[in-house]
Amino acid sequence: MIDLEVPHRLAPLLEQARGMAEEVFRPISRKYDLAEHEYPRELDLLSAVIDGISRSGVGERAGAAASTRATPEDEPTGHKVQGVGSGRNERPGGATRNGANLSSALSILETCRGDVGLTLSIPRQGLGNAAIAAVANEEQKARYGNRWAAMAITEPDAGSDSGAIQTTATRDGDDYVLNGEKIYVTAGERAELVVVWATLDRSLGKQAIKPFVVERSNPGMKLVRLEHKLGIRSSDTAAFHLDNCRVPARDLLGDPEIRIEGGFGGAMQTFDNTRPLVAAMACGLARGCLDTATELLAAEGVVVHWDRPAQVHSAAAARLIQMEADYEAALLLTMRAAWMADNGRPNSMEASMAKAKAGRTCVQIALSCVELCGATGYGERELLEKWARDSKILDIFEGTQQIQLLIVARRLLGLSSSELK
Prior knowledge:
Number of strands: 7
Shape: globular
Structural class: alpha+beta
CATH superfamily of the largest domain: Butyryl-CoA Dehydrogenase, subunit A, domain 3
Mean pLDDT: 87
Number of domains: 3
Oligomer: single chain
Distance between the termini: 38 Å
CATH topology of the largest domain: Butyryl-CoA Dehydrogenase, subunit A, domain 3
Number of helices: 13
């Protein structure tokens, strides 16, 4: 039997995240949208609160830093699934796990109802932290666990095709020497660490690409610029030049060996964990837009009667019904992908499905809400116009819409990246 309700034990965590969105993020959202690149000092206290929640065990280390992959051998929790699942997905002994991935996705959804850029700016909750949680060994996790990490993948000549990375990592004694360029690094200036993806041997293609943890203070990694952006302006986006950047060999995440079979796939588990988180961000922003637009339209007499079919409603109300349906579809795909990661199940296709659906739905909902609310939606009195600007990045970063659909097609057809480009 499938239970699609949010797990009851996560209710306190989600209530706190919802409070952050409404009481902390929304009041300062416009301020830091206008003051681009200025660090939101209010987040220092917020990160301390999140750390406290994590240590208490209430949130199972909720947040990007907690996202990791369970294995089938992990000890089951003894709880029947209360999130997303079915009998065929049960763990040994008939139990399933609602763990850090699901709690992280749901808590991020709530904070993004307030502001996506501010969510991305919370210390120690960067996408680099999720990468460390996904592929680092236990010693590395312990060493980096309390530090803020950004993630550097994209290059001028390697966008969504991570396999085309040109940044090199050459072994030199006890170090690796990194050379190359990285662009669009979220939280790159503010973070303490940057997870840099580089190739050990360009001739070997994807299998030679590995992630390295680089200290932000490393003199070989030079900040080139901060980007001016359409949206998420409260989050800094950096470009770096790596010039003979020396990194200790122990800071290579995961397996240092180049494995022809499955080597790159193992490293790419990072995306199987982070894409559901980005999908959750998109769901959160879409939820904020829908709630605000519904309230504004209700004040003007446009009310949805959920017990009646769409065709008997006004055009505006019928459109709200359609957007709610699209939102629910995106949400369930997101929860499923996160739940699968918690239960050690391969979720590459499901993670891409969630990211593709949620990213596209978020953009469509945000723009439609602006349109439905007219001048109020387009002006700065409400946050709808800002959310519309913020929405587009959620359909782009962590792999564009087109890349996600390509991944889904490969999985469905059983083809490799070389067979279906």
